[in-house]
Design brief:
CATH class of the largest domain: Alpha Beta
Strand content: 15-25%
Shape: globular
Oligomer: single chain
Distance between the termini: 17 Å
């Protein structure tokens, strides 16, 4: 009998870029490829004004989106973050949280469910941390009170290690790479005129940590690299959550005056998961800065977005986040520490583009194949 796995996700509440959906889809597609029976546990925000018709419409939209990626046979369950009961449809069109917990052998908590009323219902549960360092900071300051799980996974290589610059909160953290379902992210054609791109939020917050105030916004990181377009012949474009406010217009003008191309996500129609994938695959590669908090804490983290560029056979040039056991620094993936290094990386990528594209794809095939990554998580989670 196949393993029954419940995956907590939030496909219908994803952000403007459409990229968040792919984080959940890669896990789900990997589980399906491994022969698991999957229950998709969608997060539904409790709303006193929402009735049964709203819930039914949500479920119909969810099923439509899952079917686009061959996941139409998944069981659907709904839950609020707190486990609070939702309007119930007796037709059996979806499962309740209680029914999902009873049926599942394992919960993989991807959507950051934190309430014991949700996690405690399952026989066995794992938590996946995609904000290494920041997650442990939230826990240490009480900004997040995480329910007890059986196993804790993280994408930060230093989390829980003696070299970490932040506490482990007494939890036994297991490292895992992020999964990429390779059939969904095949190598893409190369367009010499396409820009290096990235998709990102622009604004963020500030964090007080060990007597220092650190930024947690992409804007602060990119300010140090405003001059980069003048240092490279490669085109650079940012797809950002900038809208029509005066502050946003000023930011966009400043970027464009320095040679950056800017796409404003808030001024465009909604990007679906497919729109997001096509944007990545049509790009020449990725150039991006990392949030200062991640740079300062040196967790050696890499985003799933960067992995999609690499899987598509596109070089990625990203800001350095600490020493790694397996991340390359100048072979398909370039990790820079300064404006000079970023400019050199663009030159190197363009000088031998075909080779770096092959190395980019090979890296993901070796370390991030969803079947291997998800299989390893399951093996450690159920033993």
């Amino acid at each position: 009998m196949s393993l029954k796995v419940c995956v907590s996700a939030s496909l219908c509440l994803q952000n403007k870029s459409g990229g968040v959906a792919w984080y959940y889809l890669n896990w789900a597609l990997g589980l399906q490829a491994l022969g698991c029976h999957v229950i998709w546990l969608e997060v539904e925000k409790p709303n006193p004004e929402s009735g049964l018709d709203d819930i039914r419409a949500h479920v119909a939209l969810l099923k439509e989106r899952l079917s686009e990626y061959g996941l139409e046979n998944f069981s659907i369950a709904l839950s609020s973050n707190t486990g609070e009961p939702l309007p119930w449809d007796a037709s059996g069109n979806y499962l309740s949280l209680e029914e999902a917990a009873t049926a599942a052998d394992l919960l993989i908590n991807l959507a950051y469910h934190s309430h014991p009323g949700v996690i405690g219902r399952f026989r066995r549960s794992v938590f996946v941390d995609t904000d290494p360092g920041l997650m442990q900071f939230w826990l240490s300051t009480g900004q997040l009170d995480l329910a007890k799980h059986d196993v804790y996974f993280t994408i930060g290589e230093t989390v829980g290690k003696s070299s970490a610059k932040f506490p482990d909160m007494g939890l036994d953290w297991h490292y895992t790479p992020l999964p990429v379902y390779l059939p969904a992210w095949s190598e893409a054609p190369v367009d010499a005129s396409a820009p290096y791109t990235t998709v990102s939020n622009w604004w963020g917050d500030w964090i007080e940590f060990e007597g220092r105030v650190l930024s947690n916004e992409k804007r602060a990181s990119f300010l140090d690299y405003l001059e980069l377009p003048s240092r490279s012949s490669a085109r650079l474009e940012l797809a950002l959550t900038l809208g029509s406010s005066e502050a946003d217009r000023k930011e966009r003008c400043a970027l464009e005056e320095h040679g950056w191309g800017v796409r404003s996500l808030w001024e465009e129609d909604y990007w679906s998961a497919e729109d997001y994938r096509e944007y990545v695959r049509r790009s020449r590669g990725e150039f991006t800065c990392m949030k200062p908090f991640y740079v300062s804490l040196e967790t050696a983290m890499i985003t799933d977005r960067t992995l999609y560029y690499l899987a598509s056979g596109k070089p990625a040039i990203i800001q350095y986040t600490g020493p790694s056991r397996f991340l390359p620094d100048a072979e398909g993936l370039f990790r820079f520490r300064s404006l000079d290094e970023a400019a050199r990386a663009l030159v190197m990528a363009e000088t031998d583009y075909a080779r770096h594209g092959r190395l980019a794809r090979a890296f993901v095939e070796e370390y991030c194949d969803a079947c291997n990554v998800v299989g390893s998580v399951l093996e450690r989670a159920v033993t």
